[in-house]
Amino acid sequence: MRTRGVAIALMLALVGTPALAQQASAWRPAWIAAPAPPRFDGPPEAPLGYLDQTIRQDIRLGVAADVVRLRISNEVGLEPLALDTVTATGPDGVVRPVTFSGARDIALPIGVALLSDPLPIAVERGGMLSVSLHAPGPTRGVVRRVPVRLGEGVAPVAADALLVRRQSFVSAVYALSEDAPRVVVALGDSITEGATATLGAEADWPSVLGRRLEAACPGGFVVVNAGISGNQVVRDGRSANVRARLDRDVLSLPGVTHVILIEGINDIRHDGNPANVGRSADEVIAAYRQVISRLHLHGIKVIGGTMTAFGGSERFDARSEATRQAVNTFIRESGAFDAVADFDAATRDPAQTDQMQVDLVGADRLHPNDKGYDTMAQAIDLDAFAPSGTGCHGDLDR
């Protein structure tokens, strides 16, 4: 135990010495939640804001570490954000106060994110980090929806409190790792966010892919989820379009080697009025090319995910289906992407190809269910992540 304590102290000291820290270890995102503007679609009796509540998040980390840092975001908030009583608890059960440049209480102006001071918390890969923070409020969450547990006032929230899907404030957990993994970013909309996955089961396709990669190449990769419900490629919707958020949600992350991009359904559908048609295939493809080019400038491989079928959903029409087919043909055949994940082929109904298989899709005929998310993750060729000369090459699909 004494040796481990000395090692942790040494790593904490090296954090303040960039040159040495880079030689000894590296920071990697162990979990992320992309910033997203506050939602106002809750019913009047259950608004989606917080008022004198403590929010508890139990976060499963994709990177083993002895030191972690939290990132709190108000980058897309609509008002200044005040939080206090932020704590973090690792597997040892010790509740540790979280400070930001030494301060316990934090105030974030609009457009700002804060990184916590390093926390000496040991967590194995796949281990849980429990983060609690108090929102005096009234305020609203400003990252994508995540599973949280809520309590009144500043009292600790029980581990068995009701789990709900809400926007929160933690946008990332960074882990200091001696054997830094390669970072895979899943970039998309609600299908990537896992909006209809069983709450708390980590059944979204990026989580399933992360488990596949870990089983095939232990410690070699971490998959982080940059999905945002309603996100689009060409235009802004509820959140900034994927091109506008690329720097913040992908390029700012240390260690990214691969991005899996599956977006466009929200672009090509009509807006509820069939007369207001969605974006064309050419517009979506042009946006894809921009994303690919910008990622390639940073040496990042881009895997294109074909758009899944959504026939039978409320904003489906023949025009959007023709556009989907044209975009998917580009993804499969253009060679613009470094690899292809054919989610469409894996999930569509062979007898009615404009729809997903009944046992893979939810009642809205748009979002996969848990089995559908698993099918998507299984459709990704793991060898796309390990080029010749790197670890686990040729062994990933065993």
TrEMBL record:
The record places domain SGNH hydrolase-type esterase at 186-374
Task: Please give the CDD domains that the UniProt record associates with this protein.
Answer: XynE_like (cd01830)
Citing just one GO molecular function, the answer is: hydrolase activity, acting on ester bonds
* Entry-linked Pfam families: Lipase_GDSL_2 (PF13472)
Where does the UniProt annotation place the signal sequence?
A: 1-21
InterPro entries attached to this UniProt entry:
GDSL_Rv0518-like, SGNH_hydro, SGNH_hydro_sf
Which keywords appear in this protein's UniProt record, sorted alphabetically?
Signal
UniProt name for this protein: Lipolytic protein G-D-S-L family
Species of origin reads Brevundimonas subvibrioides (strain ATCC 15264 / DSM 4735 / LMG 14903 / NBRC 16000 / CB 81) (Caulobacter subvibrioides)
